[in-house]
Design a protein that fits this description.
The chain has a 10-stranded mixed β-sheet, sandwiched between helices. It has a two-stranded antiparallel sheet with strand order 6-7. The chain is 40% helix and 16% strand. It has 12 helices and 12 strands. It is globular, with a radius of gyration of 21 Å. It folds into 3 domains: 196 residues, Isopropylmalate Dehydrogenase (3-Layer(aba) Sandwich); 110 residues, Response regulator (Rossmann fold, 3-Layer(aba) Sandwich); 35 residues, no CATH class. Strand 8, helix 7 and strand 9 form a beta-alpha-beta unit. Bound molecules: nicotinamide-adenine-dinucleotide.
Length: 364
């Protein structure tokens, strides 16, 4: 019998509580013991705590060092930035890891894909350094930049800043190579637009080339982002680990999720020195709230990643196998994984959990 693991569980909102409950049930059915510290965040706790991310939620994650989270809505124009971005920033979860894998039975023109996207999570255009059109500060910046660069910037511009540091690049690229080494993967591809963005993406690329020299057993290549989107659509099987600055990583994660069956199958992890937080790539899909309709497998597969992280690799293999068997059987699937002609045979979120648990019982 293994130890009991203390894990922070954030159910989230929208479809979050439904996919979280389904995931909690299948994780418990692996036989691994959990002591869940259930923490609420998001708009529902605003009134009580005056913030969507109360300090006790962060404290719980810092104490347990591992969290699993359902999606949380970021309301537009209501005065707070994303809870998801805040969690990544405050806990310095610098690596976003998103595997995209073909499972037998998925309706997709592509087979045999097994890609892991490693996305930098703290810098780039997501650093939140923005200047709104027409504000006095923006005018000052425009004047300063026009003078220093010798390039005229239109006065009616909005400005978003793209910082990419050597420290941030080194940390994420090293993480990608170490992940490739640990998982016995063969190749790392670094993504950039260094031909145009010489001092931000160019820096990222030069660090990638330097670090590649420290891993002679792992093949290294780089690709310009526009070429990469075309290559991924033409022949995704040629890629293994992909390491990207923040924005390209965000876009490629969704592209790759689409290649292997959609957001319902796209898990993720946000990893830092201090803590790790596992969550599906998809959002809270508010219009489906409480309908027991959407696919819990992206969050379940995030649970598989969590099991590996906490040192329960056998349970991780069993749970992934159970999910794969349910997909291959094609019966107990939500509507997103059904052919159009079979949509009326789709089951709900909780029935998917029942089916996975039944499979788990037969996998030793
Ligand atoms: P979304 O991912 O919530 O939904 C977009 C569409 O994708 C849905 O309408 C649905 O058709 C499909 N979809 C999503 N999850 C699915 C699942 N599990 N199974 C099957 N189909 C699924 O994206 P959105 O509508 O752009 O965002 C809704 C809210 O979620 C926003 O407030 C956004 O900020 C937030 N969000 C949160 C996270 C997070 O918590 N990490 C991530 C992305 C978006």
């Amino acid at each position: 019998m293994t130890n009991t693991h203390n894990i922070t569980l954030i159910p989230g909102d929208g479809i979050g509580p439904e996919v979280s409950n389904a995931t909690k049930r299948v994780l418990e059915a692996t036989g691994v013991r959990f002591n869940w510290d259930i923490m609420y965040a998001g708009i529902d706790v605003m009134e009580e705590y005056g913030t969507p991310l109360p300090e006790h939620v962060l404290e719980s994650i810092r104490k347990n060092k591992v969290a699993i989270k359902g999606p949380v809505t970021t309301p537009i124009g209501c005065g707070f930035r994303s809870v998801n971005v805040a969690l990544r920033k405050q806990l310095e979860l610098y690596a976003c890891v998103r595997p995209c894998k073909s499972y037998k039975g998925i309706i997709s023109p592509y087979q045999d894909i097994d890609i892991v996207i490693v996305r930098e999570n703290t810098e780039d255009l997501y650093a939140g350094i923005e200047f709104e059109k027409g504000k006095p500060q923006t005018e000052e910046i425009i004047k300063y930049l026009s003078e220093k660069s010798g390039t005229k910037i239109r006065e009616d511009s909005g400005i978003s800043i793209k910082p990419i540091s050597e420290t941030g690049s080194r940390r994420i690229i090293k993480y990608a190579f170490e992940l490739a080494k640990k998982e016995g993967r063969k190749k790392v591809t670094a993504i950039h637009k260094a031909n145009i963005l010489k001092f931000s993406d160019g820096l990222f690329l030069s660090i990638a080339r330097e670090l590649a020299g420290e891993y002679p057993d792992i093949e290294f290549e780089d690709r310009i982002i526009d070429n990469m989107t075309m290559q991924l659509v033409k022949k995704p099987q040629q890629f293994d680990v992909i390491v990207c600055p923040n924005l390209y990583g965000d876009i490629l994660s969704d592209l790759c999720a689409g290649l292997v069956g959609g957001l319902g199958l796209a898990p993720g992890a946000n990893i830092g020195e201090e803590a790790a937080l596992f969550e599906p790539t998809h959002g809270s899909a508010p219009k489906y709230k409480g309908m027991n309709k959407l696919n819990p497998m992206a969050m379940m597969l995030s649970g598989v990643m969590m099991l590996k992280h906490i040192g329960e690799p056998e349970a991780a293999v069993r749970l992934e196998k159970a999910i794969a068997e349910v997909i291959a059987e094609g019966k107990n699937l939500t509507y997103d994984l059904k052919a159009d002609s079979e949509r009326d045979t789709a089951v709900g979120t909780s029935q998917v959990a029942d089916a996975v648990i039944e499979k788990l019982e037969n996998i030793k």
